[in-house]
Amino acid sequence: MADLWMQFLLTLDATLRVATPLILCAMAGLFSERSGIIDISLEGKMLMAAFAAGTLAALTGSAIAGLAGAILVSVMFSLIHGFACITHKGNQVISGLAINILASGLTVTLGIAIFAKGGQTPMLSREARFSSIELPFAEAAGAIPVIGPIYKEIISGHNILVWCALIAVWITSFIIFKTAFGLRLRAVGEKPEAVDTAGISVSGLRYRAVIIAGILCGIAGAYLSVAHGAGFGREMTAGKGYIALAALIFGNWRPVPALAACLMFGFLDAVAARLQGVEVPVIGQIPTDLILVLPYVLTVILLAGFIGKATPPHAIGRPYVKER
Amino acid sequence: MKFVKTLAIAAVSAVGFATMVQAADIKPAVIYDMGGKFDKSFNEGVYNGVKKFTDETGIDVMEFEVTNETQREQAMRRMAERGATVILGVGFAQADAISKVAAEYPDKQFSIIDVSWLDAPNLRQYSFKEHEGSYLVGVAAALASETGKVGFVGGMDIPLIRKFACGYVGGVKAANGNADVYQNMTGTTPSAWNDPGKGAELAKSQIDRGADVVYHAAGGTGLGVIQAAADAGKLAIGVDSNQNGLAPGSVLTSMLKRVDVAAYETFKDAMEGKFTSGLQALGIAEGGVDWALDENNASLITADIKAAVEKARKDILSGAVTVHNYESTSSCPY
Predict the structure, then answer these.
(1) Is B182–A277 a contact, with Cβ atoms under 8 angstroms apart?
(2) pLDDT tens digits for B261-292?
(3) What is the pTM of this model?
């Protein structure tokens, strides 16, 4: 029983690790989409950021430099997206898709040009990564039965970017619902005409939203290559940007429900890793394919049955044209 | 004067040309796959074989690095059109392309690594007895483990990777009948070869359950496995090339797949007119698979481990031990 409890806690621990990039990306998407800009380029921005972080950390030996570079590159790509969608009123889905394709090709091409390792960056040493932070008394607390391990395994031992992700949810929630900027941001995603009539620049607000999205995607990318992982590999985001987008829709474009959705995806992933090849009582051994498909099947079931209608921001996807 | 000079140049180049043709009746070409020729793994192994051939014979090899899936067939056909006489394809992903192009150019020679199911009169196929090499590292893993629990992380769930897993389990159980082996596959699509984050999570989940040695056969995903093992202070086992140096002190050994031998042999045989079609299966006896010992893992390999692995090696060579090949029955008896 104690063993089972321990396994459960370790699974929750893994959940947090896996969910971190999803949470950051979902918050990024939230800012962008709440302002009316569809952001399927989360995936591409995260990939570019992961590459920038891996490259800079490898060249300078500093994880902070990697993170800074990741944020910079990701914001640059956000601005490209913004330039196409806000200034030139282009199709937001196509612009996002273009960024994803560009990122997928550019990272590999630059990677081969810089390191000649087939698009990978060199494996980073421990110093060039964000290491786990052991909280005080973790070892001592671990000895306390039942509750002790919760502190030791789940709360302690994460790197700083995991904490960043959790704090990002709180900050996002605060900004969106408690500040004047947040109110305007929501308004510009619902009815940009009203914001414009009030004398506030629609473009200005939307640009600010995509820049914030860029920063958050940058942190997510850096997490993949210099915190959770130790170097960039081609296509290493592996669809996480899209899953974050799904979590955002799941959470009805609100921060805390989106966080819950991200944690659920992370939990299913962590469970899937642990169930493979294990004899489950009564059922026996579950085939690999079934385990791997589990998160997606549950997504469909949950979306169909448990979550009500997802209502997107009203003006999402529509470029704002002042006069018709 | 100018005329004489031109004549001289013409004469020199004619001589040069003649000797070149003499030395190089063959014009070899190689198509590297997605990882690129410096991937520290599979493709780089082939590159080493190609380089050895060029160094020894002075014959240049035409090269192409595939960067997306549609290029394989085009590149192969272009090589054939540019006069290549023997073309080497790298990896099972090129199987379809090579079987098509080989049929179009019946007078040229083709060779492919990691494929065994094609049939063409001008095509040589190399397969490796990965189960034998995996058995050796399995023995090493079982003896190096203190918990009696070891792990395996595969890339894409295909019979080839099950073959690695099965040989490994065989080796582990032979050295320690009570050992537990945790197995995970990363996915069922080609993206499973390039997901180091998932690889690290799978390795961590096995380490959480008590595993202290984790073997990977997962390409780029495996780098995550090695990193997770190193982070946790446990041991990893590398694959394909010698990966001992990726995290010195944390990689117990590597299962070597000598694709360089296949590349070198293909061109050498073509040069000497000994090129044959059909299937070549390279195991321990043929020098096709082995385990890696170097200064990076010298401190990890105790005398006991070394003796046990060398014994297993001899037993396989002598036939006293036959390692089961998963691909022959689609099941694993261990």
Answers:
(1) yes
(2) 999 999 999 999 999 999 999 999 999 999 99
(3) 0.83
Q: Indicate whether B238 and B149 sit together in one domain.
A: yes
Q: In this complex, is the C-beta atom of B154 within 8 Å of any C-beta atom belonging to chain A?
A: no
Cβ within 8 Å of A, B 243-262: 246-247
Put simply, the answer to whether A112 touches B246 (Cβ < 8 Å) is: no
Assess B70–A contact: CB distance below 8 Å, yes or no: no
Nearest CA in chain B to A234: B194
Whether residue B210 is found in the same domain as residue B322: yes
Interface contact B200-A117, CB threshold 8 A: no
Q: In B, which residues are within 8 Å of A10 by CB distance? A: 205, 208
Q: Is the pLDDT of residue B324 over 70?
A: yes
Whether residues B67 and A17 touch (CB distance < 8 A) is answered with no
Closest CA of chain A from B123, distance in Å: 27
Confidence at B17, pLDDT banded by 50, 70, 90: very low
CB A123 within 8 A of CB A51: no
Whether A235 and chain B come into contact, CB under 8 Å, resolves to yes
Tens of pLDDT, residue by residue over B82-133, are 999 999 999 888 999 999 999 999 999 999 999 989 999 999 999 999 999 9
Query: Is B334 a member of any domain?
Result: no
- Identify the pLDDT of residue A322: 81
Domain of residue B203, CATH code = 3.40.50.2300
Q: Among positive and negative, which fits the CA dihedral A243, A249, A255, A256? A: negative
Cβ neighbours of A116 in B, within 8 Å? 36, 38
Instruction: Indicate whether B200 belongs to any domain.
Output: yes
- H/E run at residue A187: helix A180-190
What residues have CB less than 8 Å from A102, skipping those under 6 apart? A44
Asked if B227 and A238 come within 8 Å (Cβ–Cβ), the reply is: no
For chain B, say whether A287 makes contact (Cβ under 8 Å): no
Is B117 inside any structural domain?
A: yes
At A270-324, the pLDDT tens digits run: 888 787 767 777 667 777 777 777 777 877 777 776 666 778 899 998 899 887 5
3-state helix, strand, coil in chain B (%, to 5): 45, 20, 35
How many beta-carbon contacts under 8 Å exist across A and B? 98
SS3 letters across A203-231:
HHHHHHHHHHHHHHHHHHHHHHHHHHCCC
Q: Is B162 on the interface with A (CB under 8 A)?
A: no
What CA–CA distance (Å, rounded) separates A226 from A63?
6
Does residue B138 sit in the same domain as residue B223? yes
pLDDT band at A2 (very low <50, low <70, confident <90, very high): low
Residue B300's Cα: distance from chain center in Å? 24
Question: Are residue B116 and residue B163 in the same domain, yes or no?
Answer: no
Domain shared by B197 and B299, yes or no: yes
Domain with B232 in it: 130-257+290-329
Among B184, B227, B247, beta carbon nearest to A273: B184
Q: Which domains does chain A have, with CATH numbers?
A: 2-126+138-305 (1.10.3470)
CA distance B220 to B205: 19
| Predicted local confidence at residue A308, as pLDDT | 66
**Residue B149's closest CA among B206, B64, B233, B188?**
B206
Cβ <8 Å between B201 and A7: no
Over chain A, what is the mean pLDDT? 89
